[in-house]
Design goal:
ten-stranded antiparallel beta barrel, 22% helix, disordered N terminus, Porin, 49% strand, alpha+beta
Length: 266
């Protein structure tokens, strides 16, 4: 009997590993990294504002996946990704950077990250995330979540939280900051935890082209701000203790996206 249970657990772990690899491999395959070369071609305020909105969607995405606090001194660590199915129609900079000038390529784009959250007293959680500099992209984020309603009904646990987060991305020719206020509600039962959330993003983007590059096109750097609301619906799946996969869909007026994550809670 013990041998049979061991084999079952071993098989389950292999299944979890395969599912996780498939999720993240598929996202990396279908998410293309832009080079933003088109920024010099379309250095105009309306195009830069569209870029700010589209970049804000992935810079601030997947910042939460539960309305329940970790509890003191809980820990949640893992990897994740926020992706959008395609750039908005008005975003010529991102469209052409993903494809080629004059031959726009509508492909999924996204950002991966590594994260860690720690439970604090009074039902607060603090989170930091980022990713090693890759292809001249620097990514950093931090957030503070407070669970305002927490209730247990037998095996069911309810949580309603608010969250403030800050995320930033730096590239060779621009930088962007996103301030977000979110509300999250989740219902946790054994194995699964569905959650919904709404996030209000305020994104600023400032171009940082060199003087030489600006002189060639007779233009100046541009600083813009954009705001938008995201709606999120997702599911945490925990087939084994301390381990979970989260999958979510995101929706805004200008885009549809997906959040993926694999984490460990202690």
């Amino acid at each position: 009997m013990l041998n049979k249970m061991s084999k079952t657990r071993s098989g389950g772990k292999k299944i979890l590993a395969v599912i996780s690899i498939c999720l993240f491999t598929s996202c990396y395959v279908f998410c293309k990294t832009p080079d933003f070369d088109a920024l010099t071609t379309y250095l105009e305020k309306n195009y830069v504002k569209s870029l700010a909105k589209d970049m804000g969607a992935v810079i601030a995405g997947n910042m939460f996946h539960s309305g329940i606090n970790l509890g003191f001194p809980g820990v949640d660590v893992g990897i994740g990704m926020s992706a959008v199915t395609k750039p908005s129609k008005g975003d010529k900079i991102l469209r052409d950077s993903l494809g080629s000038i004059g031959n726009s390529d509508d492909v999924m784009y996204g950002l991966p990250f590594i994260y860690a959250s720690i439970g604090l007293p009074a039902r607060f959680d603090i989170m930091v995330r980022g990713y090693p500099e890759t292809e001249n992209i620097e990514l950093f984020g931090a957030g503070l979540k407070h669970c305002i309603v927490s209730k247990e009904l037998g095996v069911v646990e309810l949580g309603l939280s608010t969250m403030y987060s800050y995320n930033s991305l730096k590239y060779t020719n621009f930088k962007s900051d996103v301030h977000t206020v979110s509300g999250i509600f989740s219902v946790k039962v054994p194995v699964v935890e569905p959650y919904v959330g709404v996030a209000f993003d305020s994104t600023s983007l400032e171009t940082d082209l060199s003087s030489a590059a600006l002189a060639l096109i007779s233009k100046t750097n541009i600083d813009v701000s954009e705001s938008q609301t995201r709606f999120v619906g997702g599911l945490n799946i925990s087939p084994f203790p301390f381990t979970y996969i989260n999958v979510a869909g995101t929706y805004s007026v200008t885009y549809v996206g997906v959040d993926l994550g694999l984490g460990f809670k202690f």
